[in-house]
Design a protein that fits this description.
Blueprint: H1 6-29, H2 40-46, H3 51-56, H4 59-63, E1 82-86, H5 92-101, E2 106-111, H6 114-126, E3 132-136, E4 149-155, H7 164-174, E5 175-184, H8 194-197, H9 200-203
Parallel strand pairs: 1-2, 1-4, 2-3, 4-5
Helix pairs in contact: 1-6
Length: about 200
């Protein structure tokens, strides 16, 4: 395993976070643009999102979708549950969760990108979902109380963190006893070359 000095790691982390924010801000601003990762309705359809969901959701939420899979396949959401959508983006996964938990439930989306948060709030309002809340925060320090969430969803976000163990610790902190996690993400089965690890554009994908 390649060791990187702590100071260098902190600098690299800030550079990569800046690139990730810039990239996904572009997706939010012009979802019809060309990117080096799957996005929009074609990506959602490829990952098995139901046609009725995509037809019903606000078009902007679908167009700005930039996930890597479908966390709803195994989430088993039920009416009245409290849900965390980690890295909520433009809000598509939060909106789908909102339909499933109903008005007696609660969905909280957490994202680092102010542009995406603004879009998510508008999309939730367009969908008529008043029980959705979106707040700015880091996945390594979630702005939620202990044991406040029944289900945590995440779609292609945890891989962007340099401190993945800390993210998992935070998820377990906010989960209620017998709470559930439904995650889709990118995992490498082999050690990546340092040239890949140090490339911000490859993180933002």
């Amino acid at each position: 395993m390649i060791e990187v000095p702590a100071a260098e790691t902190e600098t690299l982390e800030e550079v990569i976070k800046g690139e990730v924010l810039r990239m996904y801000q572009e997706v939010a601003a012009r979802p019809d643009g060309e990117f080096h990762f799957f996005h929009g309705r074609p990506a959602a359809e490829m990952f098995g999102y139901r046609t009725e969901w995509l037809d019903r959701a606000p078009p902007g939420a679908v167009a700005s979708f930039a996930g890597v899979g479908n966390p709803h396949v195994r989430s088993r959401l039920t009416s009245g549950e409290a849900v965390l959508d980690l890295g909520s983006g433009a809000g598509l996964d939060s909106i789908i969760a909102g339909w499933q938990v109903g008005s007696d439930g609660q969905v909280t989306g957490v994202d680092l990108n102010p542009e995406m948060l603004g879009k998510a709030r508008r999309h939730a309002a367009d969908a008529g979902l008043e029980h959705l809340e979106f707040c700015e925060g880091r996945m390594e320090d979630l702005p939620l109380p202990d044991e406040s969430v029944d289900v945590a969803l995440s779609n292609g976000v945890i891989n962007l963190s340099f401190r993945k163990r800390r993210v998992i610790e935070q998820l377990f902190r906010v989960l209620k006893p017998k709470g559930r996690i439904s995650i889709t993400d990118i995992v490498s089965a082999t050690q990546l070359a340092q040239s890949i690890v140090n490339d911000p554009k490859l993180w933002a994908s």
